[in-house]
Amino acid sequence: MADAEAQRAEQPLQHADSQATPEELYPMTAWKYDTVLWTMSLLADLFFREVHPRGAWRVPRHGPVLFVAAPHANQFVDALILQRTLLNEAKRRVSLLIAQKSVKGFIGWMSRQVGSVPVGRAQDAAVPGKGTIYLPDPIHDPTLVRGIGTDFEKEAEVGGILFLPSIKGQNGSSVDVVEIIGPEEIRIKRPFKGRLAMVQLTARDDVNGDADFQNTKVGGSRPGYGGTKYKLAPHIDQTKVYQAVFDRLKNGGCVGIFPEGGSHDRTELLPLKAGVAIMALGTLAEAPDCGLKIVPVGMNYFHAHKFRSRAVVEFGPPFEVPAKFVEMYKYGDRRAAIGEVLDTVHAALNAVTVSTPNYETLMVIQAARRLYNTSGKKLPLPVVVELNRRLAMGYEKHKDDERIVRLRKSVMDYNKQLRYLNIRDHQVDYVKMSWPKVVFTFLYRLAKLLLLSAGVLPGLILFGPVFIATKIISHQKAKAALAGSTVKIQGKDVIATWKLLVSLAFAPVLYNFYTCVAAYLVYKDGLGGRVPEWVPIWGVFLAGWVIFPTITFAALRFGEVGMDILKSLRPLALCINPTSSYNISQLRERRHQLSAQITDIINTLGPDMFHDFDRSRLVPDTGAAAPAGSEGTPAASPGRPPSQLIRILTENGGGTENPANGSAAQRNTTPSSRAIPRNESFSNIGQAPLFATRPPSRDRSRSSSAGGGLGMSGFPIGKFTALDSKEGFAHAATKIREAMRERGEMRRRRRSQAQRGFGMVDGDGPTSDEAESLEGSVADLRERKEM
User: Partners of 99 in the beta sheet?
Assistant: First the structure.
């Protein structure tokens, strides 16, 4: 059964049989998997303006892989985006874990086609219990729970879970039931933790922040307290689920999990569930030599709930679980082993996501990123994500610094002024234009908007019912999800999902209705004599299913451009108005001052966090002096030996280093290509689908890096050693050897760090393949010199 499941998971990419064997618990058939993903991808392409995969070259092409993805910002969209990206970029099919309560109706049917593994969750099966509960002696016997009007003998069971109520913004506590003493008494596995739980179970006001009682002489709850409501969940046996995951991984398959549990719309990672660690450790306990790797995946969205938003799916360096933790798991110390693995998974996810303590801080960091980019050029999405992440790391480390506190307040005031004027940060620079140019630009864009509106109107009328239905239903679902959750802030994590699901169900019905109406009118009088009699009715149906979707798609594209133009009209109108233009001029001056402050602080604190700060800039320092040498080429300096310069010029890498040490060194040659994976480092070949790991954007003006094709300024080439003489060959060979020695030393240092840490696989370190490639280069140069 295990062999058949492994073959099914990778067929035909790993030459598996095409038929699912009936013994598989959760089978995956390749053609069904691909068909469902292709169908749903059409909707994803309509909903998202761009989905950019970053670091897909890190994903192992063979062998078992456990993908851990976060944050879980969309209920079902995350799964679709992750599965599609892995299939397109890495040729891997992945079975995702899905909540048992979601395996119903259309979602359940679709999840079965892609081999998803349903997982029962205790909180989904929890039901309110009779009566109320309290702690009769929270100090001397904190595991004894007493009820008032309860019937534990009928409602509770050993191994089940007792849940306390949740309060908005705070999760209710839960604990296992280990003994049923009577209808009104049970014993729990461990004492409840947290001040909220103690207050709920005792109603005492002497509980401090550490959940300790100040007055220890009083042992019971507050006199006359009637207890708190509660829920009980039965024991859920996950043995079959875990075994199915173990079998798939042991035999070379891929499994994906969102370790936070449910979806949410918070700005920080939620505590990770233990399931991801159990899956990794359990697999290795049964097959220690299977070669299991864990790959962290960052799901980075820009306004995930909005139509035509953008996303970056970032794959971090794969890592393995050390054998000592597997031994701990096998021989009894499971809690410690699971904790170690969870800590490392959390650190790896932090390296591929942007995590902030709250939404306000996220807005400040994003504003600082825009103000720091004084070049005015649009940054590629991966660079934006990486810059946000570095700023978040810097803020977390220096948030108590007085300079950061003052700067945060200034940035928040600047954001408040932008909201007051209802303009965006990049529109503040409109005031630089002369008054005649502002008027001309306003009239030109207004005319363009009117022209685009003519193209949008037909599709807007035809597709209007779908837009209305998706908005109403998605917001209703968001309110329902918000009411039943303690981790959601506004419930935006379910909006995108329901927009896609409603569109998938309602759009075909609407198109079919329009087609039937058109067929009836043609049948009745040839559409007022406009359609010849020889046109068959089936031809009308066929034409309708082509014309109506085409009109809708054209309206979407025209509307997308039109909305961008519409948003730009207000600041232009303010610049024309003399009274308002003064406010924008003041705002621009304030923006310039803020930009200088942010740049100065980053340049001051940056080297303390990143050892190669000046060399790994994501945004060029426009205030610094131009380096010597050709434009865009790093120049040699007294502090930079020639071997480092050669490595910078020759190493075609990028990405964040081992998350355990917090380093984020980037070694590309142009500002527009920093933090881009190895096969899309240079801006000219990065535009070509043949070389890029990202899909070609439909509108390169919105997402492309700076630069252009061959012969354009976007590909700055420095001065390289001439290879037209023996001296040139010898010089080049010497430089390569120097680079090899330096990279070997770096590799040894990283290996020693990894041995002291968790054994991370550094995606940027020199590999054996790279060493062989360098040795081959030296050998080739030697042969050419001898010739």
Answer: 119
